[in-house]
Amino acid sequence: MIQKGSYLNVIDNSGVKQIACIHVFGGYRKRYAKSGDLIMASIKSIKYKQNIKLKKGDVVRAVVVKTKVFSFLRKEIKTPIKFFENGAIILSNKNKLVGTRIFGGINKQFRYTRYSKILSLS
Q: In the 8-state DSSP scheme, what is residue 120?
């Protein structure tokens, strides 16, 4: 589960290495984000400094893709999801992908969310 202050690795080619969660979208006093949820994050470190639109300290939106803690993406399917790291994908203000490639595996149950483009790129 991701909460305010949690660090996440970015698994796309947007040029960002690590982000920190600032806010969890999805309701009044929603405290934790799980896989498939939208968060607001601050950029903490970048991979390379050439030809990049984003810089350190920018506030961006992101979708949580991987979590270390067991979580269920859908309640109907009772298979738990667990990864070795917390991972996210950066989105623009219009909820479009910033990067063009996604590295690593994405869970099969991610197709039931509204971000089906993420599953097709992985």
A: H
Helix (H, G, I), strand (E, B) or coil at 115: coil
Tell me the per-residue pLDDT of 63-87, one tens digit each, with 9 for 90 and over.
Answer: 999 888 876 656 666 677 778 899 9
Q: Is 11 helix (H, G, I), strand (E, B) or coil?
A: coil
Q: Identify the helix (H) or strand (E) that includes residue 66.
A: strand 59-66
Query: Residue 19 — φ and ψ, nearest 5°?
Result: -130, 160
Instruction: For residues 7 and 9, give the distance between their C-alpha atoms in angstroms, rounded to a whole number.
Output: 7
* CA nearest to 68, candidates 18, 15, 113, 6: 6
Helical (H) or strand (E) element with 58 = none
